[in-house]
Amino acid sequence: MDTIYALASARGKAGVAVIRLSGPASHIAVAALCRGPLPPMRRAGLRRLSWQGDVLDEALVLLFPQGGSYTGEVSAELHLHGSSAVVAAVLRALSSQPGLRLAEPGEFTRQALENGRLDLTQVEGLADLIDAETEAQRRQALRALEGELGRRALAWRNDLVRAAALIEATIDFADEDVPLDVMPEVGSLIAGVLADLRRETAGAAAAERIREGFEVAIVGPPNAGKSTLLNALAGREAAITSAVAGTTRDVIEVRMEIAGLPVTLLDTAGLRETEDEVERIGVSRALDRARKADLRLFLLDGPEATTALEPLADDIVLQGKADSAQDGPGVSGRTGRGIPELLAAIGTRLERRTAGAGMVIRERQHQAMTAAITAMESAQSEIGRAPRRDELIAAHLREAARSLAMLVGRIDVEDLLGEIFARFCIGK
Asked: How confident is the model at residue 328, as a pLDDT?
């Protein structure tokens, strides 16, 4: 097996830079750089690094044994001073040693998967944790990284394997007296796993929204203060504002965090009938995005609501340009009046939609669970048939168990791995 190395911390000037090595020659490569003995396993030691007579740096050196590292391989870390010149010099020294090569994107984590240190759901959780932008995304990704879904998937699979084994025992000993009817236990095992899987898949949509983010569309007539409000919420001039009606022609998006959730605010064209062809296209796009949005904020310019789009039960309707207390209930992007209350209202509505979020955070995971559910439902229907066809029951249970094995990456996922690890950075 190759020994791989890479910069594991971010590129550029920093206080500390970390270079990671993994593979059978890791400790040999580090020893070639160090003056003096290597530190004990898992204990950091300060060592001077040199190569071909040149001193490279003074670094903290950490060694990990096989089976006791992130990758499961013999590995090491060099904690250097974080200058680009130091990092480049140490990487050149490593590249000069035989048997070492630069790691590919995600290769350290792929080693961890292949060595059973992580399952595929944990790998996907790690990818999401690296990309997390909000508190809710961090919590969700960390939960996946901790392996709860993988542990439960293996427990479900074990129940199905036992159920299939009980059925197959009745087939194998059909000509003998079997003293115990296995169907009550088989039915109980299937029902238990089926209930858990249905509950998890029901929460998949909410979990996906946490991962991908919500869209909140600001809609209303022209000059209702939509763009001014967007700029106030964004804390920057994201949209052009003007007293001229119809300034906004296209949908303007601003990504932000509300109540710990990822939210994209959409500033849309003012809704009105117009002869201007470009503005008419903008209004059409505004209506399309507003209908698809998770939540709509209607800003009114007077007592009448727009007739082009009707608010839904959970939508927010406010008076725009409510610059003074005499304006009544409303919000003002110019003065900031009503903005804290608006953010709280948006956060409350979106939090309600994530209350039932489960552990399934990827479409691949959802598909594997759905396939298992379908197979188990087929097994249940066969149990209720007369005459009962035990061979088909066992086959459906094996199919369901196979789907759960795919969920954690035990079988038939090789084609997915290239796509998954290509999104990782080198050094992870």
From this structure: 67
Apex CA 364: angle with CA 352 and CA 257, to 5°?
35
Closest CA to 250 of 264, 267, 232: 267
Domain 216-353 falls under CATH 3.40.50.1450: no
Terminal Cα distance for the chain, rounded: 18
d(CA 8, CA 10): 7
List, for residues 186-217, the tens digit of each pLDDT value. Answer: 889 999 999 999 998 988 888 888 888 899 98
Residue of 297, 299, 283 whose CA lies nearest to 224: 299
Q: Sign (positive/negative) of CA torsion 162, 164, 170, 174?
A: negative
- CATH number (3.40.50.2000, 3.30.1360.120, 1.10.1710.10, 3.40.720.10) of 3-114 reads 3.30.1360.120
DSSP 330: B
Conformational region of residue 116, where left means phi above 0, alpha means psi within -120 to 50, and beta covers everything else:
left
**What residue ranges of the chain are covered by domains with CATH 3.40.50.300?**
216-353
Q: Say if residue 180 is exposed, middle or buried (CB neighbours under 10 Å; 0-12, 13-18, 19+).
A: exposed
For 359-393, write each residue's pLDDT tens digit.
888 888 999 999 999 999 999 888 877 777 888 98
